[in-house]
Specification:
- The complex is a heterodimer of chains A (407) and B (292).
- Chain A is an alpha/beta fold.
- Chain A has two domains: 207 residues, Response regulator (Rossmann fold), CATH 3.40.50.2300; 162 residues, Response regulator (Rossmann fold), CATH 3.40.50.2300.
- Chain A is built from 15 helices and 15 strands.
- In chain A, helix 2 packs across helix 12.
- Chain A starts with a helix and ends with a helix.
- The chains are: A alpha/beta (407), B mainly alpha (292).
Chain lengths: 407, 292
Amino acid sequence: MKRRTFLQGSGALVLAGAAPSIAFGQENTITFGGSVPMSGAAAETGLNVLQGYQCAVKYINEEKGGIEVGGNTYKLALNLFDDASDPSRATTLIQRQVDEGVDFFLGSFGSNIVLPTCSITEAAGRIMVQAGGGSDLIFTQGRKRVFGIFPRASRQFVSSVNMFTSLEPKVKSVSIMYTNDAFSEFQAKGARASLEEAGIKVLDYIALPVGVSDVSNVLTTIRENTPDILVCTTHDQTSILIARQMVSSDTNVPMLYQTLGPQTTAYKDALGNYANGVVTQAYWTELAPYSGDYFGSAGDFAKYFRANFDRELTYHMASGAACIVTYVEAVRRAGSLDRDAVRDALAAIDFECFYGRIRFTDDGDGDAALLGPLLIQRQNGELEVIAPPDGASAAPVYPAPTWKERA
Amino acid sequence: MNLFLQTTLNGLVLGGIYSLAAVGFSLVFGVLGIVNLTHGIFVIAGAYGALVLFTKLGIDPLLAIIPIGAVLFAVGYAYQRTIIQWAISRASLVASLVVTFGVAMMARNVLQIVFGPDVHTITPTYSFSSLTLGDLRIDLVRIVALGASLVLLSVLALVLARTHFGRAIRATAQQPLAAELSGLNTRNLHGLTFGLGAAMAGASGAIIGIVQPFTATSEVAWTLNAFIVVVLGGIGSPAGALVGGLLLGLINAYTAQYVGPALTQAAMFLVLVLMLLVRPNGLLGNAFGESR
């Protein structure tokens, strides 16, 4: 066979094979666009969220056979790109997908990325359901097509303060450290307001720069002031840094509470036994008493995820999967893929699934009464739910043993 | 008074780590005139190397400095003799800036593919111990890091001052033409100097890995820190790196304690700008500049 004949023949075959799939893709697939940090500073959690999205899409397509809308069956597809944890790269990627006609978007991870990207989707009349941005700014600037699985940052601390007030001996003082970014600052502000409202004194309110490499001096202040609880609204790497330096400088507090970090494998590996006693937030656990049409119960989701994916299961996978499930439920209720109909269905949605009861506020963030965080504490190497009391699997260990006792 | 002493101690210890991480950058800048934007990659590669040796073979990171230094010396030498030398000979010295920037971006992604995006830490037995001096407290691992920094900086200073190799490097830096006329192979010496810089960066990375968590993206901060240290302390000498590093550590500590930790980076850049305006050669000047 001549080279030219071979190329012509194989080219025709490729085109013939591709043409039906392109048509199929256009007619019977619902594509979710977006970007996720698959590299860069936020990649560890970004990959967790991504696997949550992938898990739900796989489940809906393979176990449910897709979704039925208006008499047609649709498969789900993801069109997600690596934004490298970089907001400017993310905005370019999202704008391109908006121009290409993507209607439904999923969120990246990190309020610094979600905030500019959701502004683009909102302005273009597209919808975003996300589990990566909790900054108040996402929900308080009048957007009508942006929905967050998590409550806004300033409302994420109410259940924590309820737990603090139930502890014996009584918690009298708290120090707060936060990273100076769009999410952590709002979370810290919310924490301070909730604590002061509960009559707990806030001794220190310390902002740390993004990418801080040393907290020795801040810990000197903590040793001088001796709060009952040290609250850190910081991200993974900073949380590990703070905890390690607390251990090595023997800075003891009766409770160390870090909102992000202690859930991760990296934290457990870095701290070993010292991770015991540290309290953190989780928006979902596999022990949660929720179930629904998709995946079944929380435990069933965990089983399905572990059978199909390799990363250690954290709540970020569940919240990512919950975004897809919520979209699917909204489309089903709308009975249409029309953007306005889906938006209205999302705004009115109120249903229970493996993740919990999903309902949004008028501003689009998760209803804090239903979707607020559980509090977990690592006890003897296992993550135990310590609050709210209804779903608790263990009582809080308070005051926690000193670092030397935990060695 | 205790708070002030504790802050000063924290600053000095942090500064020791900055010094070691910057000395390779300073040497390459001083001798070759190259602002090596791949420097942070060598630091983080050293940290990953120490992590692998510690987790797979159980080698303590402080001992791992030797094999890591040797490997990165070879990598640095080969890198300078090929990619950087080609860029400089075909364009200009400025081309090295673009080339090292590009290589750093690629290397960062390669590290991320190999080791994943997760945060890593190295935890030898002494990672969580602390020393107490009266009311002052400091974690042992940082004291160890400071000690290792001082030892390595002293060794480098001795090599530069007392050995034939060190004299050859200084001669090449001060008068390249005269050095060549005296029979020195300056191209080879440039490669060796770059290798030495990479080895020092790798050694510092092994120490940094036990002091703080790291990812591939941490490299950017270490290149930036090295640049600030060189501007503060002066170019080309271990003493300059030490002075610059300690000064940066103290600025960091005092700002964090008395102004606010959120403003540490702002303070560092403010001092950088002031230094460039008032004394652009740094406190100790350019170690090789007087004959140029």
